[in-house]
Specification:
The protein is mainly β. Strands 1, 3, 4, 5, 6 and 7 form a six-stranded antiparallel beta sheet that branches. The protein has a five-stranded antiparallel beta sheet with strand order 11-10-22-23-12. The protein has a four-stranded antiparallel beta sheet with strand order 15-14-18-19, with helices on one face.
Length: 376
């Protein structure tokens, strides 16, 4: 659905341990770290899929099989048709069932996949949107986890349900992803770094990027060439959106309607074709008013886009990306270098219940707001 097009996704796999086993951190300490899995409580016996719905039953031998769930509900037979910025296309149907993630069990909507145009479909059953929007019909699991009910879906959670704090962090390797719910794990951060907070732009996990240079020396080449002050199209920054569903880093391959003096991707390509090999350096101003520089190495995948600047998987493989929406009027993004010795939840052997105890920090920062939002 449209709400999910640029949203975070949780992929749940056909493998018993979960393809993307997240680290889950609740609002209390200690908290659980578990592998992600979908469950339908009490749904143990297989029952036939309704005859008129057999054309959407594709879930033999995968982790989640709606045919075996006594609580599964079909919502829209053809409700999923998602197009991502890296050209991935998912198709399927909307369902509703109980989702258990660590200490949280909620009834929620979910998208079940029947086809897609990448090999990803061989290992996942569907998606749970983790983006945020405050619209009533938001498909975000984050909104379900942090609410006692979803009136637009006719869902009321059990009386003993304790909503999750509205914050989370995400990090990843090439093989695994880790979702830290209710805050971030301080053990995951490099001892030489600390969590730097930035103003979140809009609702799509964006930050204001003021500069991208090819290299950081005296001969560094600026790729974000804004018009000077006084020009009618002058901007002081461009929105960079964090998206775990995008394989590469994306930069505009146009001037975005004249907002930029030149195409950033063309400038980058010109440098690379000339044989110059340098890292990309992104500059952003944190909530303390300090300019921070973040390096993306030369060998990272960079792709062109019509207008979007996407901070994709390479960012999550290097940093802990923290999303603090505890105060919806002061939404924030945090960045900290991941500790080299830190093992993601899926990389560490766990007990049979796939859980371990960790502490959690975060939620409700009190830093001053950053300057005005960038214009895309």
């Amino acid at each position: 659905r449209a709400e999910l097009e640029e949203a975070f996704c949780i992929a749940f796999s056909m493998k018993g341990t979960g393809m993307i086993p997240p680290q889950l951190l609740g609002s209390a300490v200690p908290v659980l770290v578990v592998a992600l899995l979908l469950q339908a409580p009490g749904a143990l016996s297989r029952k036939p899929f309704p005859k008129h719905l057999e054309h959407i039953s594709y879930w033999r031998n995968k982790l989640f099989n709606p045919e075996e769930s006594e609580t599964f509900k079909l919502i829209y037979p053809d409700g999923v048709d998602l197009h991502y910025l890296d050209k991935t296309n998912f198709k399927g149907y909307d369902g509703q069932d109980f989702v258990t993630i660590g200490q949280y069990t909620v009834e929620s909507r979910l998208g079940l996949l029947t086809q897609c145009n990448t090999p990803l479909c061989a290992s996942v059953d569907g998606i749970l949107g983790f983006g945020w929007t405050d619209r009533e019909n938001s498909a975000a699991l984050l909104k379900t986890l942090t609410s006692t009910d979803r009136p637009d879906w006719g869902i009321v959670q059990p009386a003993d349900f304790m909503p999750m704090k509205r914050s989370f962090a995400f990090t990843a390797s090439h093989e695994f992803g880790e979702l830290q719910l209710g805050g971030y794990d301080p053990q995951s951060i490099d001892p030489s770094d600390t969590m730097r907070m930035f103003k979140m732009v809009r609702d799509d996990y964006g930050v204001k990027v003021e500069s991208i240079t090819y290299g950081d020396g005296p001969d560094a080449v600026e790729l974000l060439r804004f018009h000077p002050e006084g020009h009618p199209l002058h901007r002081s920054g461009y929105i960079g959106k964090f998206d775990s569903g995008t394989t590469c880093v994306l930069v505009p391959n146009t001037t975005v309607g004249g907002i930029l003096q030149a195409s950033p991707f063309e400038l980058l390509l010109e440098q690379q074709l000339s044989g110059v090999k340098r890292s990309l350096f992104y500059t952003m101003t944190d909530l303390d008013g300090v300019k921070r520089s973040y390096e993306i190495e030369y060998d990272v995948c960079v792709s062109p886009s019509a207008h979007s600047m996407i901070l994709g998987d390479p960012w999550f493989r290097k940093w802990i990306v923290y999303h603090d929406l505890s105060d919806l009027s002061r939404k924030q993004i945090g960045l900290a270098r991941r500790a080299t010795q830190y093992k993601l939840a899926g990389e560490v052997p766990l007990d049979d219940d796939q859980s371990e105890t960790r502490d959690v920090l975060g939620g409700g920062g009190d830093s001053d707001d950053a300057e005005d939002s960038a214009d895309a």
